[in-house]
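Propose amino acids for all 225 sites.
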């Protein structure tokens, strides 16, 4: 049942993304992108690993995702006053170059404390199996088995700041289409939560999701390594 829902969602996402296909990252030049990202450093850090958790990490994002989001900020399909001010003069080539630069970096790992482990495990359960009670599909159907994302449209979540993940989930759940072009695809699972649990119930475990770097095999979730 859950797998069927996830497959249906995936099919509709794939169709929607085929129509609004993001700018190709392959046309980007990472060295040029590094130069062009000088203004981004203040919030997203020198390599895209933002030190403050209200700013998303963009280092190591799946190729194409950063350019796609920049285009959406510019067209205001995704509404954010801060980012709107950042993309004003960027051309498609600039976006592709910036995309190539961040995609060439690695998203840094996050570690958790012992008292966060229980919540993180609950988050992992939702990630892997969904939340049948509220018709929430498994996140890994779209975000990949280890949360590494699937290029170009399904963002990496592993290593992302928990506070940012939580803020995005709440934004999707709010139903505000301006929060994300593709909000519909994340929103539908979270809308279901409105029938029962409040945001805390659904988002608290997910927000505590963390991962660590396992040598040689890329990012894995803390409890699976
Ligand atoms: C003053 C702080 C600030 C600066 C400077 C800034 N950003 Fe952002 N950026 C943000 C915030 C805040 C968000 C989260 C927006 C939201 O919640 O929708 C964001 C989101 C993003 C996202 C979406 C990430 C995701 O996971 O969906 C991308 C991509 C991005 N910024 C790229 C850039 C680039 C490229 C630059 C430089 C040209 C830049 N930003 C400069 C604050 C900043
Ligand atoms: C059917 C596919 C699909 C499923 C299932 C799915 N997502 Fe997503 N998710 C997406 C897409 C597509 C985006 C990018 C939206 C955009 O372009 O702004 C996204 C974006 C996100 C973001 C924002 C990331 C960022 O960098 O801004 C978070 C957080 C997220 N998803 C968490 C989840 C969680 C948690 C689950 C499971 C409970 C989940 N998603 C299930 C497709 C999916």
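Proposal:
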């Amino acid at each position: 049942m859950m797998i069927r829902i996830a497959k249906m969602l995936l099919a509709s996402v794939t169709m929607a993304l085929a129509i609004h296909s993001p700018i190709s990252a392959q046309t980007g030049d990472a060295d040029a992108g590094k130069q062009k990202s000088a203004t981004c450093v203040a919030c997203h850090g020198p390599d895209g690993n933002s030190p403050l958790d209200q700013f998303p990490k963009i280092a190591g994002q799946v190729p194409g995702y950063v350019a796609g989001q920049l285009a959406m900020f510019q067209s205001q399909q995704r509404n954010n006053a801060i980012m709107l001010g950042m993309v004003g003069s960027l051309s498609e080539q600039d976006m592709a170059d910036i995309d190539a630069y961040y995609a060439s970096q690695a998203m840094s790992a996050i570690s958790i404390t012992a008292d966060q482990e229980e919540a993180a495990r609950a988050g992992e359960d939702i990630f892997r199996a969904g939340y049948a009670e509220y018709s929430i599909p498994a996140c890994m159907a779209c975000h990949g088995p280890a949360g590494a994302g699937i290029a170009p449209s399904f963002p990496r979540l592993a290593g992302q700041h928990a506070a940012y993940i939580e803020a995005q989930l709440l934004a999707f759940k709010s139903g505000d289409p301006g929060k994300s072009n593709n909000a519909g695809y994340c929103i539908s699972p979270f809308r279901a939560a409105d029938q029962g649990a409040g945001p805390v119930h659904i988002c608290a475990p997910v927000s505590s999701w963390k991962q660590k770097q396992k040598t040689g095999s890329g990012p894995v979730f803390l409890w699976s390594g």
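The pocket of heme C (ligand 1) is lined by residues 37, 39-40, 42-44, 55-56, 58, 66, 69-70, 80, 82-83, 86, 98, 155 (CB under 6 Å). The two ends are 29 Å apart (CA to CA).
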